[in-house]
Amino acid sequence: MNEKQTAVIFKAFCDENRIKILKLLMGGEKCACRLLEEMSFTQPTLSHHMKILCESGIVQGRKEGKWVYYSISADGISKAQEYLDFLKNE
Amino acid sequence: MNEKQTAVIFKAFCDENRIKILKLLMGGEKCACRLLEEMSFTQPTLSHHMKILCESGIVQGRKEGKWVYYSISADGISKAQEYLDFLKNE
DNA sequence: CACACATATAGAATTTTGTCAATACGTTTA
DNA sequence: TAAACGTATTGACAAAATTCTATATGTGTG
Fold first, then answer.
1. Where exactly are the structural domains of chain B?
2. What's the predicted TM-score (pTM) here?
3. What is the CATH number of domain A3-89?
4. Which of A 12-71 lie inside 8 A of B, CB atoms?
5. pLDDT band for position B90 (50/70/90)?
6. Distance, angstroms, CA B81 to C1' C18?
7. Helices marked H in chain A — which ranges?
8. pLDDT, tens digit, 9 for 90 and up, residues A19-76
9. Measured CA B88 to C1' D6 distance, in angstroms
């Protein structure tokens, strides 16, 4: 994994609002509209953050009719964990 | 740990150049001047990145005479790992 | 003490990121 | 089919991050 790809993964965690979104998703899968209720910015901004979270692999989206349900991806987190393990044990 | 503090920790990993610096530090403690040789930016820019890495707790600096030796902090990485564990197991 | 060297800080320029309003797209429902 | 609803995209703007040059600070050396 190169430097750029690693940075993309961790982009998920370097913004305060995205950490808050992840906190909300810890309670389980949530639809975008429910996340929006808890955040203090507009719908396009949420959409932007969800894109970054999905690109990082830490979050996954599932479309169902009009709604998109987001949840935390254990596999995505594992990738991040592998990097930290690697960094620690050398 | 609040959202802001978490974001500060992970700032270490969300820039390509900082990932490269961490990679260099994986080989063991290195002085700033040696890191600078490997990077393709100026000395003040390195200084800036090292400040962010130290503030995140992922890197620690040790001053010796004119030189500053930087190394990876296992404790810092553990903090990041704790957060990822927390995120995963809910 | 004066100079050289390693690093840090200040301030400015540039680039990237976060945000919003407007609008497009896709799906459901009347 | 038209309207309503949830989400994504576009484009503009503001804020933050990255980078540079110039300079300051601190430390060792002649």
1. 3-89
2. 0.94
3. 1.10.10.10
4. 13-17, 19-20, 22-23, 26-27
5. low
6. 27
7. 3-10, 16-26, 32-38, 43-56, 74-88
8. 999 999 999 999 999 999 999 999 999 999 999 999 999 999 999 999 999 999 999 9
9. 28
